[in-house]
Amino acid sequence: MPTILVTGCAGFIGWKVSQKLLEKGFHVVGIDNLNHYYDVRLKWHRLENLKRFPSFVFYQVDVENMEALSVVFQVHKFDAVINEAARAGVRSSMEDPFVYMRTNALGTLHLLDLCKRYGVQKFVLASTSSLYAGQSMPFREDLPVNTPISPYAASKKAAEVIAYTYHYLYGIDVTVLRYFTVYGPAGRPDMSVFRFIKWALEGKPIQVFGDGSQKRDFTYIDDIAEGTVRALTPLGYQIINLGGNRPHSLLEVIDLVEKYTGKKVQLQYGDFHKADMQATWADIGKAKDLLGWEPQVSLEEGIRRTVEWFLENWDWLREITV
């Protein structure tokens, strides 16, 4: 079976993509720097899940470290690279934009150059719906996303552009996936769904920036992983949205959190952040046509599964800071 390099394999999406590949019989080499952007216990929880598979190999390597990356490419012959290694989070990127550019842009450049050097013909790049700020909805891949409103979005745009350059110059087959608000079990603690559920279980007020009417195209993690694996097919150079195709307001999410935790919550409202988007909505026509993909898990079912995971792991999740 093919051998795939998955960067950021201990991260939320990278972990589930690796798991999906392993279940399908692929060999997976995973790398992650295990940084402390959030509690590393979540990353180890995901890694332990992957280490159950005999065809999984892990290296603690940073995509910013070209020398260490080169060693991994020397040891293994890869059929494709899926780059999930990234600094995520719009607001955090305003605090330290430099690390976002180093990881998201320079890290992508390192990987592309190694693909060129070692003859890896397929590259899948995780990108973001944050690029669509200010555009009309539903968001289509051909919209002119030239005005990112956060360093995070700017760093992802830079990664997309350099990926196209390596496709044009060296013939690397590149698929860019723009993800829309991914959530689910073992998610990131800085994301709304994780926070809402944890605060509800703790009996704490839920903090909402704005009035809660802002909408997101929430997409369940298993659906995202399936679409990402399908993106390994040769496509030349394509940008493809992976989204739920049905926006939901934060207040709708909170209602579902109340339903499945059995907790009535209080809301604390704060100011809407300048770098946030009022709404996101993916046009997934290309994903259907090129990948045969569309989401399978509804928001209600996804929230139910996520709450169930919280309850099963509450003995240690209660200590995670959000």
UniProtKB/TrEMBL annotation:
<dbReference type="Pfam" id="PF16363">
    <property type="entry name" value="GDP_Man_Dehyd"/>
</dbReference>
<feature type="domain" description="NAD(P)-binding">
    <location>
        <begin position="5"/>
        <end position="306"/>
    </location>
</feature>
<dbReference type="InterPro" id="IPR036291">
    <property type="entry name" value="NAD(P)-bd_dom_sf"/>
</dbReference>
<protein>
    <submittedName>
        <fullName>NAD-dependent epimerase/dehydratase</fullName>
    </submittedName>
</protein>
<keyword id="KW-0520">NAD</keyword>
<dbReference type="InterPro" id="IPR016040">
    <property type="entry name" value="NAD(P)-bd_dom"/>
</dbReference>
